[in-house]
């Protein structure tokens, strides 16, 4: 996670796909594998994911992964006034045993 955002310094799962790959389930499939590795193998207590507020497809992937909305913030590396500046952080917290 980049500095200056909620969850900075933590483990983050993210995706970037070519436009022709959108809507085919690749992001969800790959992110499920990454989350399983982070939780089961790396024993991470939580995993973050951030995106722009207006990125509804990525937010839908986060929800499908079982992540919950944690924070809304202005991304410090995106210009003030940009429609991409408002961001959200979703979080997957490993249940305590």
Low-confidence regions: none
**What is the CATH topology assignment?**
Aminopeptidase
Give the class-level CATH name.
Answer: Alpha Beta
Overall 3D form: globular
Overall description:
The chain is an alpha+beta fold and 97 residues long. It has a single domain, classed as 3-Layer(aba) Sandwich (Aminopeptidase), CATH 3.40.630. The protein is 26% helix and 23% strand. It is built from 2 helices and 3 strands. Strands 1-3-2 form a 3-stranded antiparallel β-sheet. The longest helix is centred in the middle third of the chain and has 16 residues, at 26-41. The mean pLDDT is 93.
Can you lay out the helices and strands and say which pair or pack?
Elements: H1 26-41, E1 46-52, H2 56-64, E2 68-74, E3 86-93
Key words describing this protein structure:
97 residues; Aminopeptidase; three-stranded antiparallel beta sheet
Task: Offer a quick outline of the entry.
By secondary structure, this protein is α+β, with helices and mostly antiparallel strands. It has 2 helices and 3 strands; from the N terminus they run H-E-H-E-E. The chain has helices at 26-41, 56-64; strands at 46-52, 68-74, 86-93.
């Amino acid at each position: 996670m980049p500095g200056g955002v909620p969850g900075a310094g933590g483990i983050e799962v993210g995706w970037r796909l070519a436009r022709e790959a959108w809507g085919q389930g690749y992001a969800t499939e790959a992110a499920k594998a990454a989350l399983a590795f982070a939780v089961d193998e790396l024993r991470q207590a939580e995993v973050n994911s951030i995106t722009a507020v207006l990125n509804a497809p990525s937010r839908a992937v986060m929800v499908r992964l079982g992540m919950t909305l944690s924070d809304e913030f202005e991304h410090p590396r995106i210009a003030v006034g940009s429609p991409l500046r408002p961001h959200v952080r979703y979080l997957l917290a490993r249940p305590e045993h």
